[in-house]
Amino acid sequence: MPGLNEHISHINTKLQQLLRQYELLQNENIKQKQTIEVLQKQHHEFKNSLSDLQQQNLILKVSAAPLNEADKKELEQKINGYIRSIDKCISSLAQ
Q1: Distance in angstroms between the alpha carbons of the first and the last residue of the chain
Q2: Tell me, what's the pLDDT at 65?
Q3: How would you class 62 by CB atoms within 10 Å of its CB: exposed for 0-12, middle for 13-18, buried for 19 or more?
Q4: Which string of DSSP letters, residue by residue, matches 5-73?
Q5: Rounded Cα distance, 91 and 40, in Å
Q6: How do residues 51-88 score in pLDDT, each as one tens digit?
Q7: What is the pTM of this model?
Q8: Helix (H, G, I), strand (E, B) or coil at 67
Q9: Which of 15, 27, 40, 71 supports an S-S bond with 67, CB 3.0-4.6 Å?
């Protein structure tokens, strides 16, 4: 019987170690999820900032120099896209 008690004690010790490791991994997982959430928010903010800067760049191009045909078409496409977005908003508000 002494061998059985030692075996049970050894299993109990291993189980306690595994439970501690599990708790540590759970805490680390929570921290990683929080980090991911922060990074996703930063990514979204950077993406919005990039979009704003691209629009400002286009405005500066338009105001600074005469437009060539490619720039005119690009500007026209942007304006048409904005107009379509505004029209969609207006139609959804009208419903």
Answers
A1: 81
A2: 67
A3: middle
A4: HHHHHHHHHHHHHHHHHHHHHHHHHHHHHHHHHHHHHHHHHHHHHHHHHHHHHHHHHHHHS---HHHHH
A5: 32
A6: 889 888 888 877 776 767 887 888 888 889 888 988 88
A7: 0.52
A8: coil
A9: 71
